[in-house]
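Chapter review: from sequence to fold.
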Amino acid sequence: WRRASARARLGARVGDFARPLLQVRHKRLMKLGLRADGLPETELHRLRILAKKMRYAAEAFQCLYRPKPVKRYVTALAAIQDCLGSLNDAFVGRQLLSGIAQRLMVDHGMAAADANLLQGLVLGWQTARITRDLEGFPGIWHDFAKQKRNGHEPLGWFAGEDAHVADGVDRNVGMVDLAAGADQIAYVNLNVAGIA
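The token string follows.
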């Protein structure tokens, strides 16, 4: 918030701030998502994070746009997050599982073969879950991406001018008030109808 370019945008209307933010995040998500079939686990995790950031941004500004398209969009983003979440769970689980197996052997005297068997059972379950989720991902991605082809280019609920802004929202309200000095954290107050 201390950069001049960021400060210049602080007095902008909410829609003038939200629209480019949503468009850029959507573009990043689409660019990576269209290559999802061949992505390694780390990039699939990145795709999940992009979907999460896009979802939170869409939810933050949803009062500016028509409710039904936003709800469909956010629901599709949540499905992407859920599907790809098992990959992150498995990655963290593998790290934890290795440590648990080690502790079972060292602290509790479990035989290495038994600890390895337990570890293998859990890893097998995780692998089946990941496989199931990855097999379902193309359909989930298709449901998300097809929204562009249903008269929303690119997703008209945030692409258009004021005609796309929800009724009853003051389009002239400033977006943020900066209430902190240069050495303090900026306080951002969204002054949008329904958000105080």
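Two observations follow directly from the output. The radius of gyration is 22 Å. Residues 149-154, 160-196 have pLDDT under 50 and may be disordered.
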